[in-house]
Amino acid sequence: MPIKTISSAHNNDLKDLSRLLQNARDRRKSGLMVLEGIHLATASLEAGGELTALYINAEASAHPEIVQLVASVGERVAVSYITPGVFAKVTALTSAPELLALARRPVPERPAAHVSRLLLEDIQDPGNLGTILRSAAASGVNEVFLSKGCVDVYSPKVLRAGMGAHFVLNLHEAADLEAVLNDFNGSKLVTALDGAVSLYSQDLTGPVAFVFGNEGSGVSTALQALAPARIKIPMPGQAESLNVAMAATVCLFERVRQLEAQAG
After folding, report:
1. pLDDT tens per residue across span 72-130
2. In CATH terms, are 4-104 and 117-263 the same topology?
3. What is the dihedral of CA 235, 231, 116, 221, to 10 degrees?
């Protein structure tokens, strides 16, 4: 495909790009996501993702990683260079990234049986969700189920916070979390402030389903009823609770600690 130069914010391609950046409904309908910056675009490709378009800040056109990226996608991907002033109008970031890339939203594979998983109910803050995904990827829990009430997992803010975690996880959107828990045969753990059992008293060396809920209301009573173990993270300090992303990280890495201890 020929490389284009775009110097007007009224360009139809840029208008479509702006809509995808701002509107979750348009992203879902199109089956696309917008990747901001070299790191996310490269991480997507390395994981086997499919880019459909590259919009490059003309000021960064000679950047070695951009030159390499353009060469690697060849003629499969439409490439456009955007003049700096116009590029800055498209992205909401204070400091414009080197590029924006359009990519196909991955289609999740059938979840593997008897492996640990993460269930997320109505997580609303993009930063929280991205951080949770990053911790899941780092801890080796790759099956993630998100309720319909979660913020768009492929929103630009969640993608930025995830730092590439999306591309190594099996993400199941709009999942029926009650059905997922019912079908799971391992340990089922729900975090709750009034949970009677300490996280550190639980055996996490087998398959585990961790359930985390909305920042304000926590895990719904319906899901709590399906999980025999209501757990809490001991907090000897003065804070009343942990941010959901921090709580998830503590739980995920307690599992890692126990597995490391078991391995000797």
Report:
1. 887 889 999 999 888 888 886 767 788 999 999 999 999 888 899 999 999 999 999 99
2. no
3. -130
Closest CA to 105 of 190, 31, 1, 42: 31
Query: CATH assignment of 117-263?
Result: 3.40.1280.10
At the second CATH level, the architecture of 4-104 is 2-Layer Sandwich (3.30)
Segment 201-214 shows an average pLDDT of 96
Q: Pick the more confident residue, 218 or 2.
A: 218
Q: Judge contact between 232 and 192, C-beta under 8 A.
A: yes
Phi, psi of 240 (to 5 degrees): -80, -30
Q: Is the pTM of this model over 0.90?
A: yes
Q: Where are the domains of the chain?
A: 4-104, 117-263
Amino acid at 41: A
